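Need tokens for this chain, all 397 residues.
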Amino acid sequence: MTTASVTGVLTAAMAFSMLQLFVLGALGPRLVPDLGMSTTALGLTTTMGFGTAALLSPLAGSAVDLLGPRRCLIALLLTVSAALGAIAAAPAYGVLLAAVALGGVPQALANPATNKAILAAIPPTYRAGVTGAKQSGVQLGAIAAGLPLTALAASAGWRTAVWTAAGIALLVALWVWRTLPADPSRQHHGTSSSGIGDKPQPRGNDGIVYWLAVYSLFLGAAMASINTYLALFGERRLGLGAAAAGTLVAVLGVAGIAGRIGWARVAGNPRAAIVLPAGLAFGSGIAALLLAASALMTGVVWIAVIAVGFFGMAGNAVSMVLVIQRSAPGRAGRNSALVSAGFFAGFAIGPPFFGTVVPSIGYSNSWLMVAVEFAVAAAVAALWAVRDREARVEERA
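Here are the structure tokens for all 397 residues:
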């Protein structure tokens, strides 16, 4: 077992954890007519997926702390395979919606299980870098759905493409079983798992979880609105062609991968990690203002999209680094899950709200609303950073 092999398997698990939602988005033009769905009904699948994940996250975190990361990652991938299989076999919209709800289980398990695996298998020096790399797996899943699976769907049909993804998920489950260390027979909250060089942290450090959950709620709402409506904004408001509008989303994903890997490494320094969430949210807010301005200066949209990806998408990765740094190993699953619940809740709430206000106030003003969401996230993170510094000064005194 090497750091590279563990990084690879965790990145693959993160990629598959949300693949069912990316598949629906990428193959939507084929699914909608085949299943007799409306485009609105397709959009509701995203809310169903993230809403279910938000509700299940606290339970998933406790399960990871109790059962261990390897068992839970195998369960994650088996559930992904089942959800993708249900989508591939779906005769009607109701079955599709149930499959997406089932897909909320792996979404809820993903961050707690992968973070716990990092504590169990990765030396402290490399944890921040591995965290950034595995968080980039989400974007890699989107790329996989948008390129090879879409190409396969064009030649063999969308159901064949989804069945293929379901089969690959089973192979990744086998990879997890062969790569990660066996879980201890029993795990308890507040005690160390098999972390290398870990010392349990005081329970008081769990307070950061609630700050990060609120931060993630506003960050997730803003990012989800951009993810969902960026291409539509480019095509309908900026007059870009369908290909160029789709390229905006691709650029967002590539910038997100770079941001997650880069900023997570910076967060490996605990002093930097304290101030990074606020800084990343602030930079994302500036990027949202540039999106609003791009309605008047079209070329600015590319700068805005790169900035959103580089700053905004890194916020969740840095949050996970902080959770790993501040949690006792026996509570890392629970803490990761609570932060993820805030992020998923934001993803469930943000796009429907954005879609409701766009017809009445327009895209430019709607992007200003997104900028406010980023600003609130930055304020929450800044307030926590100040309080954390004050608490540490008092401890030294």
